[in-house]
Design brief:
alpha/beta, Rossmann fold, 8-stranded mixed sheet, 14 strands, elongated
Length: about 350
Amino acid sequence: MRLLFVGKRHPQQRDLIERPYGRFHHLPVMLAALGHEVQVLLCSHRQLPSLQTRVEAVDWFCEDVRTLGPVALYRRLTEHARKFQPDWVIGMSDTHYGWLAWRLARSTGALLAIDAYDNYEAYMPWNLPLHALWRSSIRAADLVTAAGPQLAQRLQSHRRSGRPVEIIPMAADPEFRPLDKQTCRRALGLPANTRMIGYVGSWASNRGTTILIDAFRRARAIQPDLQLVLSGRPPQEMLSEPNVVGTGYVTDAELPTLINALDLACVITADTSFGRYSYPAKLCEAMACGVPIVATGTEPVRWMLGDRREHLAAPGDAAAFAERMLGLLATPLADYGPRPDWYDHAQRLDYLLSNEGREKR
């Protein structure tokens, strides 16, 4: 099949050309490895020049709305699509690209698929016209996939037919795997014999991260030698806390090393319109490294962890979070069961596209 993916160039603030990762990169690449002809149209708004490149048997085309203007951008994307003549147009990465994929599918006579990994409507709750276009694209799609059952259920409510929304879960990228802890600590200049808890996610009050320092204080009151390792740019008051170590931003190549250096990884989400449909990539990465995890027990996170109670604390409950920390620190490795990878998920998507394509054609 000829598959055309459409999405933004910088999902989660990462440039897919310079820093390829996640479902946005690996699903197209794995589908190409399965024998399909795959192209990806990426859009940006950073006044970048047009770009065409070929990576791992996939052709990537990048266009910028500030460089071309909205009308010329749409014309350029339509020209790409009509020249390629895809069997499927697959919208990914944001509400805009559901609508855009819908338009490109109509202009080429292709089937339409929409892949969602978050509740995109939570990003800009005030933008009701855009949400209406998003929901229209969900209704029009021949296939809709979601990162988990909670999001699938939400998207199902927008479907016109009874055709179920299918699940293509999140996965860790291949570089996340178990590594020797002491080797990783030496590489990062971290102490060898100290118990280390770490958090490597985003910092935002609406994601519930404010409980982390409270939970750490409670745990350190019982185990005074505990250290908390924070990456990125956490609030200054957290870095001023005793036994807190800030690494700053770590490179993509160093992130598996940092996770494997930890005795315990923390994953924090909140019971919000975003968190109730969020399937954190950091959770997949820590599981792939075999590192013990304590996580806030939103429904998506509980599903991802197989409802393993020893890893879960109620959202906002710092005391329970600290209790789980202390309980898991005694566990050298965690067993999360079989972990499907991006190739497994691409095989599932291949089956869905092929099966639906036979029925529609």
